[in-house]
Amino acid sequence: MTSPLQKRSDWLKNYHFALRVEERGKVVSVGDGITWIKGLPSAAIDDMLSFADGSHAVVFDLADEMIGAVLLHQTENLTAGTDVRLQSRQLGIAAGDHLLGRVVDSLGLPLDGKPLDMDGHMRKLDILSPPITARNFVREPLYTGLKIVDAMIPVGKGQRQLIIGDMGLGRSSIAIDTVINQKGKNVKCVYVLIRQKRSDVVNTLELLRAHEALSYTTLVVGEASALPGLVYLAPFAGCAIAEEWMAQGEDTLVVYDDLTAHAETYRELSLLLRRPPGREAYPGDIFHLHARLLERATCLAKEQGGGSMTALPIIETRQGEIASYIPTNLISITDGQIYLDQNLFAAGFRPAIDIARSVSRIGGAAQNQNVKHEAGRMKLDYLQFLELEIFTRFGTKLDPAMEIKLRRGRILREILKQDRLHPLPAVYHMAWMIAFNEGLFDAFAPEHIPAVMARLEKKIETSGLTLESERAAWVQTLSGRLKTS
Known about the structure:
By secondary structure, the chain is of the alpha/beta class. It folds into 3 domains: 19-89, Elongation Factor Tu (Ef-tu), domain 3; 93-367, P-loop containing nucleotide triphosphate hydrolases (Rossmann fold), CATH 3.40.50; 373-483, Lysin (Up-down Bundle). It has 15 helices and 16 strands. It has helices spanning 4-14, 147-152, 171-180, 198-210, 228-247, 259-272, 286-294, 325-333, 342-346, 369-375, 378-392, 400-416, 426-437, 449-460, 471-483, and strands spanning 24-31, 34-38, 47-51, 56-62, 66-73, 83-90, 92-95, 103-104, 121-124, 162-165, 187-194, 217-222, 251-257, 308-316, 336-339, 359-360. Strands 8-12-11-13-14-10-15-16 form an 8-stranded mixed beta sheet, sandwiched between helices. The radius of gyration is 26 Å and the shape is elongated. It starts with a helix and ends with a helix. The mean pLDDT is 91.
């Protein structure tokens, strides 16, 4: 780390006398996290502004006679008439490994009370996404640790998978489980908390620390009490941090929790700056805002380093309505969605993922071939079971073949249930899928499946089998293990 004295010495060595011309403006009004400024004819969107009182802002809107700016730091002395200077730089953040295990704001400043080395590589918060020629196909799996996702809705490294559902259904739990499951897999994570209460931030931090996930994770926080400008910039800061690691050839995962709050903050700032409102009072460029953020998540070609950035944006629905403005925008931008349903949650099916409405457009291209083979028709067969179960409520008499399908469907439903904060390794997914396909669970009643799965989890750890093991070895081992259960 460079000392302040060394920095000052370097600055003095490079200093030279020259004529300097700078623009200065005046604050016209200030309030609600935004300010109007007169002057500064050379100002452009996203330029940084510094105020005589020590405040800072970023240019957000250009009018005929004034510019609108969003405050990033505001002192009590900021009033109308304060001098404003245009800085010759755009917003950036010092990204690098020094941020691992830390909690920072949208400008990279520490929020955890510890000193932070700011000598990382400066990356602009908002840049263009990589061109098509710099990208590669998404082919490697990113395991979430959730049985229902890794088997039926697979996620690949470089994919953008939306997590969507009403409040309180476990959207954040899926994202946290995914982060916890990256332990030991050389995936660096960034968790972005947007306009959340401090108690929720502390809870997330403690969960990651308790599961030893903080050592490879950075928390970027735009909390509810912060200035709207910092909340608005939080996902771009998280993306820039993950992008630095991706550029170095590493695999990264970034969670945006959640983009509904981000869209509402952007709407608030836009209305305060008198931008014309559109549908649901959102500005017309709200689609472009999230598209340019999520398009930066990709898998780079080998010539570009071969790194990847996987994005898990979270979005909130109300009363399960996925056809509202922001959810439909995000669904059209992303590569698939994991949809959580209120009725499933109330019925005790956790995680409450509605398989019929959930999809991964990458699909089996990002699955291990052996896992893909075992998953096969599992999703289709499960959906057919759900339809058949509804049909049987009318008291229709079924033939023995249908009875077998119903029984196996109920067993599969019990298998897919999973406790929160308990992600499971991919080899365990392989074990239960082979066991189910071979009919090894058929001897157990559905209510006994949770206990059988718990014993199987313990026994599979000592089996020595891997995803690449021969299927015959799996069947032989599982047959013996489940018979002794």
